[in-house]
Amino acid sequence: MKKRLLISLLLFMSFAFIVESCKENGCSRALVSTYQAHETDKMTGDCMGCHSPNGGGTGCFRVGGTAFDSIPADSAVKNAIVKLYTQPNGGGELVVTLQVDKSGNFYTTSPVSFANGLYPAIVSGQGNIRYMPNATITGACNSCHGVVNNTIWAD
Ligand code: HEC
Ligand code: HEC
Predict the structure, then answer these.
(1) Among 120, 130, 132, 147, which is most exposed with the fewest C-beta within 10 angstroms?
(2) Cβ of 143 below 6 Å from ligand 2
(3) Could you list the residue range(s) of the whole structural domain that residue 90 is in?
């Protein structure tokens, strides 16, 4: 009798836990940046620090970061695109294409397989390209850029 009560209690607790965790993480929200999008409160920092299963931000980003004009206010970020390739310098397969929004941010909640790493590039609104020389195994671009490395510049 006691055992059955314990089992029901455990079942109830795990059910409550599942309901709670679904509510806590907004992972069910699909979000992808577009040229026209912008955040009401301009978002900065390591996006995935908050837009992750245990974070307070809406949606769980697989790629997220911020681009800046290499020459301040020359609008190179406007209509810029971030691309991720399987090989350096735009080689191999183009796996991800993301529009940079009006706040200079790009993000997606769509699953991305980084496998052995992907090679980022940014194409500015003027069509100028910058390639990251190394592969990244994480889509949390701002975990390095703007922290230990330069910010991501568009020309
Ligand atoms: C310190 C935590 C934190 C960081 C870091 C953060 N965000 Fe957010 N973000 C939030 C919270 C909380 C909300 C919810 C506010 C709301 O929806 O009103 C939000 C909302 C958003 C939204 C709007 C979602 C919707 O409902 O349409 C977007 C888009 C977004 N963030 C993108 C980003 C990007 C891109 C980055 C990185 C450059 C980033 N965020 C960094 C906490 C964060
Ligand atoms: C582990 C740290 C790290 C992560 C994560 C990272 N990068 Fe980089 N990135 C670098 C380093 C280091 C360089 C080369 C040196 C520099 O430009 O600061 C670089 C260079 C670049 C460049 C070329 C910069 C230039 O001025 O020519 C682009 C574009 C870029 N990264 C985009 C991205 C994007 C997009 C992401 C996320 C998908 C990303 N990076 C994730 C470290 C990182």
Answers:
(1) 147
(2) yes
(3) 27-154
Q: Which atom of ligand 1 is nearest to the CA of 107?
A: 35
Per-10-residue mean pLDDT, the chain, length 155: 54 46 66 96 95 94 98 96 98 98 98 96 98 98 98 98
Question: In Å, how far are 25, 122, 136 from 150, measured between CA atoms?
Answer: 31, 14, 15
pLDDT attached to residue 17: 45
Which ligand sits closest to the CA of 63?
2
User: Hey, which of 29, 36, 44, 58 would you mutate to test ligand 1's pocket, going by the most ligand atoms within 8 Å of its Cβ?
Assistant: 58
This prediction's pTM: 0.89
Residue 146 falls within a domain, yes or no? Answer: yes
Q: Are 137 and 52 in contact (CB under 8 A)?
A: no
Residue 1 counted as domain residue: no
Residue at 139 is within a domain: yes
> What does the pLDDT read at residue 22?
43
pLDDT of amino acid 2: 57
Structural domains counted in the chain? 1
Q: Using a 6 Å CB cutoff, which residues line ligand 1? A: 31, 39, 43-47, 49-51, 56-58, 64, 66, 105, 107, 142
Task: Give the Cα separation of 87 and 130 in Å (integer).
Answer: 14
The β-bridge relationship of strands 63-69 and 152-154 is parallel
